[in-house]
Structure formats: structure tokens, C-alpha cells
Design goal:
293 residues; alpha/beta; 6-stranded mixed β-sheet; 5-stranded mixed β-sheet
């Protein structure tokens, strides 16, 4: 079975999508529709902006979403997903390409999410760190031992790689304890805040209104969502899980395992970069993983 997967924030690069815009009438039409929907020419920043320009929250998330969705739609009849999933932000790309969300509604929600997360980040300094070489259970145990601060597992990326999220002091404590427990690396990430942690609660409240006011259809194939790693087709469940996703962990390892268990043998990553392909191969080396974008 064919599975299509979509990356999250951090995969952006200067020049992203320019070749699509110049070589595909459909891509050009969709990019121009995006400029109109957002009220500014995001294509100018994507195609010619600096890395710093692309790191602006209001640009990063919609830029990765646009590159991912348009990459998928431009392969035409070759895009026949039997299941989809996305990592964090990528879940919105997965829902649009599966037909659950319209292109414009997906873009509006991604933009609303980006702005709400930016506001939440500004309320309290916070950060994330990648922990390499410890089991999921050990990372959870250490996070649970930090009771006077916020330090939680945010992304279960693949066996031996978990990202933690929380206050700056909480992550500093977490990194020290992880290294003492035998982690090969505890690497602070260059991010604007503590995504997928309780510190995103203000953004969750704001995004919930936007999601509840958006029409979501039954997708044409199951969409595996981050919060529980399970396939969903019910619009009510999809909305609930999208809201919960902001403060909950991304269960990517289990998502890929469940997709393989349900018959996925061929994974295609749509969008910038190749991070998900690498993670998928670490999770299950028996499947094929390749990319377009």
C-alpha cells in the first residue's frame, strides 16, 4: 500500500517551490491563490528570501505547508494515497491532500496556528532539545521526575530519538539528567518555543475556535493523526485531535509502525527536505521511503 507523509516546521529552505511555480500551471495558480488568501506575497519570501526571512513564524509554517501540498498535487495521477500522515504541522498537509480540508481552509488554519503559537512563545521563554540514544521509557521517566518545572516528551521521532519541550530551566535540567542516564547527545534546538507542551495552551484555545469554524469533510483515505498514531476519517475526531495536537506529543514512531501494520510498504515524503524518509527507515527498514519536492 502507498502512504504519503508530510514534514513539519524546520524543513524550509530559500528557493523552495520556485521550480514548481516556474514549471507547472497548477502550482502557479495555487501559489497565487495562497498570496491572495494570506494578504502578502509569501512566494517572494519562499523563492528569494534569506534563511532569516523564512524563519519568521508567519512565513515558516505556511511555506512548508504550501511546498508540501503543491508538490503532492502536481504529481497528478501518481498521487493516489491509501493512507496519509504528517509530522506536527504536516498533519494539515496530510488532511488537505486527503480531501478533508480545502486548500484555502488548510492554509488559513496553518496561518492561524503559526500566529497563535508565536503569541504563546512570547508569553514565557521556552525551548526544546533532541535526546539521542535513550529509550522512550527512560526519557519519559526522567521528564516525570522533574516536578518543579516543565519538561515533557514532545516528539517521538524514531527509536532512540525523542525531542523534549518545556521552560528553558526545565530543558536544561532535563538535558543534564538525560546525559547522566547515558544519552549519547542532548542537543538544544534553535526553536522559538516549547511546541507540543503545556506552554502551548494559550495557542490551543485560540486555534480551537478557528478549527471549530472550519468545515472538515470525510477524507478519501485514512489520516493517521499525531496525538494517538491511529487512522481517522470522522471529521469530529479529526477536529478534536487537531486541537489536542498543539499541547500533546507527536507519536511519529508509533504512527509509522501502525501504518506498516495496516499494510503500508511504500512511503513518499512530499515537501521540503528528507527528514521523514530517514526516520521511517530507522523505524522499519523493510519499507521503501523516497521523496518528491
Amino acid at each position: 500500500m502507498k502512504a504519503f507523509v508530510f514534514p513539519g516546521q524546520g524543513a524550509q529552505f530559500s528557493g523552495m517551490g520556485k521550480d514548481l511555480y516556474e514549471n507547472s500551471a497548477l502550482a502557479k495558480e495555487l501559489f497565487e491563490k495562497a498570496n491572495e488568501t494570506l494578504g502578502f506575497r509569501i512566494t517572494d519570501i519562499m523563492f528569494d528570501g534569506s534563511d532569516e526571512d523564512l524563519r519568521q513564524t508567519k512565513v515558516t509554517q505556511p511555506a512548508v505547508f504550501l511546498h508540501s501540498v503543491i508538490s503532492a498535487l502536481c504529481i497528478g495521477d501518481a498521487f493516489q494515497p491509501e493512507m496519509t500522515a504528517g509530522h506536527s504541522l504536516g498533519e494539515f498537509s496530510a488532511l488537505v491532500t486527503a480531501g478533508a480540508l480545502s486548500f484555502e481552509d488548510g492554509l488559513r488554519l496553518v496561518y492561524a496556528r503559526a500566529m497563535a503559537m508565536q503569541k504563546a512563545c512570547e508569553l514565557l521563554p521556552s525551548t526544546m532539545a533532541a535526546i539521542i540514544g535513550l529509550s522512550d521509557e527512560k526519557v519519559e521517566e526522567i521528564c516525570n521526575s522533574i516536578t518543579d518545572d516543565i519538561c515533557v516528551p514532545a516528539n517521538y521521532n524514531c527509536p532512540g530519538q525523542v525531542v523534549i519541550s518545556g521552560t528553558i530551566s526545565g530543558i536544561e535540567k532535563g538535558c543534564e539528567l538525560m546525559k547522566a542516564a547515558g544519552a549519547k547527545r542532548a542537543l538544544p534546538l534553535k526553536v522559538g518555543g516549547a511546541f507540543h507542551s503545556p506552554l502551548m495552551e494559550p495557542a490551543k484555545v485560540e486555534l480551537e475556535t478557528a478549527i471549530n469554524n472550519t468545515e472538515i469533510q470525510i477524507p478519501k483515505c485514512p489520516v493517521y493523526q499525531n496525538v494517538d498514531a491511529l487512522p481517522h476519517t470522522d471529521p469530529v475526531d479529526i477536529k478534536k485531535n487537531l486541537v489536542a495536537q498543539l499541547t500533546a506529543s507527536v507519536h511519529w514512531t508509533q504512527t509509522v509502525k501502525n501504518m506498516v501494520g495496516d499494510g503500508a510498504t511504500d512511503f513518499t515524503e512530499c515537501g521540503p527536505g528528507s527528514v521523514l524518509q530517514g526516520l521511517i527507515k530507522k523505524i522499519d527498514s523493510s519499507v521503501t521511503a523516497h521523496g518528491i519536492g
